[in-house]
Model the fold of this input.
Amino acid sequence: MRKLAELITNTLPGEIIVCCYKEDYPICSINDKLLEKLGYTEEELTEATGNKMMNLVYPEDREMVKQNITQQLCCKKEYELEFRITGKEKNIIWVKSAGSIADMEDGRILINSVTDITKYIEREKMLEKEAESDPLTGLYNRKKAICVINEMSSHKNRGILFVCDIDNFKSLNDTEGHVRGDAALIYLAGLMKRHAGNEVVISRIGGDEYMLFFPERENICCILEKMKKIQDDFADYMKEKYPMLDISFSAGGVKQGESDDFNILYRKADIQLYRAKERKGCIEIN
Done:
């Protein structure tokens, strides 16, 4: 079986690994192209994996890979699957693996063709991030934030929505230019990420307007402390940088009711923001 497996790996194009059709797929043969991709010699691979293909698979993917390969092979004696493997330097490589069973006189083998798709996956992730992120601040954009909030609400994970903006922001752009205006927007986004916490949905929804959606389980006093910290730190920063300008931060918040969809919730929060901006530099919550 081993000699035939070596013939297959050295004859077929691409990166090939041939395994015994047994638990964890013991490796019969692997070609030089795949060894080079992984960064191993054949001896190093045997030592690192116990000579089992499944031990090449990224640990978090192993159970999924086992189940999918088993299910597909049971149906049609071949499989196709995308997953992660690890190289010698613990680097993660995304691959598309296609395999088929072959019956030999002394047992069955699984012939696998492995294609590196890491660049494709990274490109897809980059495009996905661009589609859901605000390009200036890196926060969620409006569309993505609404999607996340609606998803949370559908699972009864209601919360408190704040709509915020910068008071007199136009004066900064008019007197100091848009580059410094953008820097202020980025700084405010950083404060929100630093003080709000990882469970909060934060987004820039346009211009100098932001949204923060806090989980309902968080104590309202803690939420208001966080919002006040964002407000105070931003005011201090702007006063230090531009003492001649009266720039502050206002926010309006509302607790989500059982029947409130996003549009209703946003309108309620926007009313509170309007009240806060009448005095400027205030936080109003209903």
The two ends are 74 Å apart (CA to CA). Residues 220-241 form the longest helix (22 residues). The first strand starts at residue 15 and ends at 20. The CA atoms of residues 275 and 284 lie 7 Å apart.
